[in-house]
Amino acid sequence: MRRKLLRLQWLISLFMLIFLMGGSSNIWAGEIKIGVVNTEKILRVSAPAIAAQKKIEKEFLVYDERIKKMAAQIKELQEHLEKHDKSTTIEERQTKERELANISRQYQRAQQQMREDLTMRQNEEYSLILERVNKVIKKIAENEGYDLILQLQDSVYRSQRIDITNHVIKALAEQEQASGK
């Protein structure tokens, strides 16, 4: 939250600086061209983001299968304990309960480890995508004469006229097709 406030304060300061330094006449004359990009949307719907998500899902399929097997073991042991509650000896029951507790701990550790590894892997892929996004944005800015392009997620209002997110997504898709990925 604090980061968002600092970013908003920075933007307000930037616009005030442009206005105070005599840029106001240029702004009204339409000489300054500003664009806004929603990187969150790009990381959700762009071709490279979708490809990265599929790649990550494929990588973590083995993890997921292992965790599902553990969950099935836990369920099986719980059902066995409930079903054979009265027919087993105290020692057998305690052994099964310890086994259930051990598998439950392993299951929780495996889930936690998978979440951490998944987050780390997603961050790696997203940072690579963001590098590409920034290059595409820079290219668009240079080719189309933008003076300023901001990456905003939580703006209160932005005109569709200055939102170039879809343009960036389209350029990324074209780049993806051209590279044959």
Description:
The protein is built from six helices and two strands. It is mainly alpha-helical and 181 residues long. It has one domain (20-179): Protein Binding, DinI Protein, Chain A. Strands 1-2 form a two-stranded parallel ribbon. Helix 4 (61-83) packs antiparallel against helix 5. The longest helix is centred in the middle third of the chain and has 55 residues, at 90-144. The protein is elongated and about 85 Å long. The model is unreliable at 23-27 (pLDDT under 50). InterPro entries: Chaperone_Skp, Skp_dom_sf. GO terms for molecular function: unfolded protein binding.
Task: List key phrases describing it.
single chain, 181 residues, mainly alpha, Protein Binding, DinI Protein, Chain A, two-stranded parallel sheet, 2 strands, Chaperone_Skp, signal, unfolded protein binding
Q: How would you classify the helix and strand content by structural class?
A: mainly alpha
The proportion of residues forming helix, as a percent range, comes to over 70%
Q: Which whole number gives the mean pLDDT?
A: 85
Question: What summary fits the major beta sheet?
Answer: 2 strands, parallel
Compressed to H and E, one letter per element, the order equals: HEHHHHEH
Rg computed from alpha carbons, rounded to a whole number of angstroms: 27 Å
Number of domains: 1
CATH architecture: 2-Layer Sandwich
The span between the termini is: 37 Å
Strand order of the largest sheet: 1-2
CATH-defined superfamily: Skp domain
Number of helices: 6
Uncertain residue segments = 23-27
Q: Which CATH first-tier class would you pick?
A: Alpha Beta
Number of strands: 2
**CATH fold description:** Protein Binding, DinI Protein, Chain A
* Beta-strand share of residues: under 5%
> Which overall shape is indicated by the principal axes computed on the Cα atoms?
elongated
